[in-house]
Amino acid sequence: MTILDGKKISKEIQLEIAKAVNKLNSKGKKTPHLAAILVGNNGASQTYVNAKVTACKNVGFKSTLIQFDNNISEKDLLIKVDEINRDKEIDGLIVQLPLPDHINSIRITEAISPLKDVDGFHPINIGKMALNIPTFLPATPAGILELIKRYNISTSGKHCVVIGRSHIVGMPMSILMSRNSNPGNCTVTLTHSRTVNLKNITKKADILIVALGKAEFITSDMIKEGACIIDVGITRVRSKYTKSGWKLLGDVSFDDIKNKSSYITPVPGGVGPMTISMLLLNTLKSVTGFDS
Ligand code: NAP
């Protein structure tokens, strides 16, 4: 069994990005600049955005954090998005989700220029992804692809089962694993809360990608011997053994499964750290293009 060390790979990627920024600078080219919009004071969102801004700094990007009160109107938010779309200084724009209930997040996502949509959530970019046209890929699925690639895990002809069909993880993941590319070329089964006999399906998976948000949902009786297990889930639970009083659990019962799997991602330290690196990679590509 091999543990897929997302923390280590993520550091490697960030070093590569920092080198690419130095190269851009030495050629007198533009330093990538990411703008992040944060609405309200959701603690988790604040943590995620701060981590993204810090990561930008670490690789040498410019970043701008724009914060609004919870009561900003949808119209005013759209005006800001439009302003950033037209700002030549800014290359990538993310609007941290979730947004307050009175703001239609689909309308906001659609308003972001597809050329600056480094989250890869715009319908045009989702369409390009499905057609295998180079574009910004959603960060979490792209991070999983990168982990699979860097550990040389063979995917062609394999049965990949994805649990969860969210627009940010499960749905794009299923498309990426079925594309005619490497990693890819899997036969994919996409499952969700209405799936009947889930266990019968997961037991047939060569590669199982779990993104449903229920702590330790997948147990060893649900997987095939030698399967590759990718755990996307993050659930914070109380713990008396940690200093903070909290710990993070994945959707997979790690200790129960690890010896039955061929590869497995830990939580934390697996998929999570890859997500920010992929956002940085998308921001770099917003300057260099998709060929490099
Ligand atoms: P989400 O939007 O809540 O979607 C959950 C999906 O799981 C839905 O499609 C749902 O089906 C499905 N589901 C729920 N219960 C199920 C069951 N019993 N059997 C089969 N499918 C079931 O979640 P998400 O945003 O994709 O996130 C999933 C998890 O990944 C969360 O723990 C989140 O914190 C984590 N996450 C981690 C990262 C990272 O960087 N590591 C990034 C994003 C998310 P329906 O569609 O039928 O409701």
Please sum up the structure shown.
This protein is of the alpha/beta class and 292 residues long.
Descriptive account of the structure:
This protein has 292 residues and is of the alpha/beta class. Strands 1-11-8-7-5-6 form a six-stranded parallel sheet. A three-stranded parallel sheet has the order 3-2-4, sandwiched between helices. It has a two-stranded antiparallel sheet with strand order 9-10. Helices cover 39% and strands 17% of the residues. The protein has ten helices and eleven strands. Helix 7 links the parallel strand 5 and strand 6 (187-191). The structure holds NADP nicotinamide-adenine-dinucleotide phosphate (NAP).
Shape: globular
Query: What is the N-to-C succession of helices and strands?
Result: EHEHEHEHHHEHEHEEEEHEH
Chain-averaged pLDDT: 97
Helix coverage percent: 25-40%
Tally of strands: 11
Any ligands, ions or cofactors bound here, and which? Answer: NADP nicotinamide-adenine-dinucleotide phosphate
Strand order of the largest sheet: 1-11-8-7-5-6
Q: Helix segment count? A: 10
Distance between the termini: 33 Å
Largest sheet descriptor: 6 strands, parallel
Alpha-carbon Rg, integer:
19 Å
Task: Point out poorly predicted stretches.
Answer: none
Structural class: alpha/beta
How much of the sequence is in beta strands? 15-25%
